[in-house]
Design brief:
This protein is mostly helical. It folds into 2 domains: 125 residues, Orthogonal Bundle (Helix Hairpins); 101 residues. Helices cover 85% and strands 0% of the residues. α5 runs antiparallel to α6 and α7 runs antiparallel to α8.
């Protein structure tokens, strides 16, 4: 009988965790963050004490969120009308979650920063000097130029119409990046062939004029070449 009661209590506890996960967005965020932190901790040489602190911190955030949820549900069960005491109780419970979350950020910073910082510097240096990074920078700048031009001229939207073809600009930017990175005539031909088809489709669809497509192509190609030349 006692064993059954123990099993039932365990099941009720699990059900409480599951219900909180199903109904509370904050709990989902906390669980996802906890999962990622625990996975990340596998790649670092934490001592037993450090890992215990990490586990305690994660548990504290989840526990306070569950207590906050329990308090909110209990208050809502007894009243649906505004009451200053009910508001105070909910605010205090939410404050407890905030305190535990800030504590978690501090603990995470102290445990991970010194270990991640040197690795982050190495990764960022490699990314900054990589063609992939330059390609994304080029695309980002092309998109920004398209939005600025269309905003200033007040013609079309970022994705349709306007003084220049955004689709053609992006297609030509990608084709130029592929050409520079691959240094292969076949890939360059295929890439610009696709870009030409994109421009042609904008004209066929009567979304842009040939001049607007040409303007988009020039913008995409020039910005990409400038970025790669600048880094080179």
């Amino acid at each position: 009988m006692k064993l059954m009661n123990l099993i039932d209590s365990f099941n009720y506890a699990i059900q409480g965790i599951v219900n909180t996960l199903k109904t509370e967005m904050n709990m989902k965020i906390h669980f996802l963050a906890a999962f990622l932190v625990i996975i990340t901790s596998l790649f670092f040489n934490f001592s037993k004490v450090e890992f215990l602190i990490l586990c305690f911190t994660i548990s504290l955030v989840i526990i306070t969120e569950m207590i906050n949820t329990a308090i909110e549900k209990t208050i809502d069960m007894f009243t649906t009308e505004y009451h200053p005491l009910a508001k105070t109780a909910k605010n205090v419970a939410a404050g407890a979650v905030l305190v535990s979350s800030v504590n978690a950020l501090v603990v995470g910073y102290l445990l991970f920063f010194e270990r991640i910082n040197p690795l982050t510097r190495i990764i960022l240096t490699k990314i900054k000097n990589s063609p992939i990074h330059l390609s994304f920078v080029s695309l980002a700048l092309v998109i920004m130029v398209i939005i600025i031009v269309k905003t200033k001229t007040k013609t079309g939207t970022p994705l349709q119409g306007g003084i220049l073809s955004g689709h053609t600009a992006l297609a030509c930017s990608m084709a130029t990046a592929i050409t520079i990175i691959a240094e292969n005539t076949l890939l360059a031909t295929l890439s610009f062939g696709i870009a030409i088809l994109v421009g042609e489709s904008r004209i066929e669809g009567k979304i842009h004029t040939p001049f607007q497509v040409l303007a988009g192509a020039i913008v995409g190609i020039l910005i990409t070449i400038i970025i790669f030349q600048f880094r080179g």
